[in-house]
Description:
Number of strands: 0
Shape: elongated
Largest sheet: none
Helix content: 55-70%
Radius of gyration: 21 Å
Low-confidence stretches: 104-113
Amino acid sequence: MFPTTNWTSIEAARHDTRARRATLGDLAHAYRRPLLVVAQQHGLTRDEAEDVVQSLFAKLVARDVVRELDRERGRLRAFLRTALARTIATHRERARAHKRGGPLPAVELVDDVPAPADPDAFDRAWRAAIFERAFERLAAEHKRGAFDVIVAYFRGDDPPPLAELAAAHGTTVPQLKSMLHRARARFRALVHAEVAATVGPGGDVAAELRALAL
């Protein structure tokens, strides 16, 4: 079964060490890129951004962040974005405290974290992560040869003619068109499923799809 990263898996990770490790790996795989984009837009170097994002995932599955943020208040996208802002604020306070040689002051608010230069960058990167995750699931459902055909038409800038592709894979043009139609429909369903997994219980999936322009 393809792993899912959703509120259920995050909640399970609060009480099970093995689930915690698995959830950390899955979260990092699915959502590391959008968070790195935002962290670097906040002015962090690549290495600092990597450290901050890794720290966020570690705190999340160690139950620290999960206790602080209420999943009923928003979507996983908003949850991780807020948690990242808090982690960046803590990182900066630690850096300032280190320069002063004093202890780390308490960090309760994130008001000192500036808005990213491009406020839409996170949502674009999040949308790309959703697509990538759905595409990986689509790949897992197809044999290599068939998926090569799908890739040519999903991602290719200049796909070969259908007749040429059908002949290369020992099928007919109508069969090829049918396969591509099913693949597109399945991809849309997988995108919907990925988004649905990132909203809280009773969350408005349609609203999240609209917010991400999906």
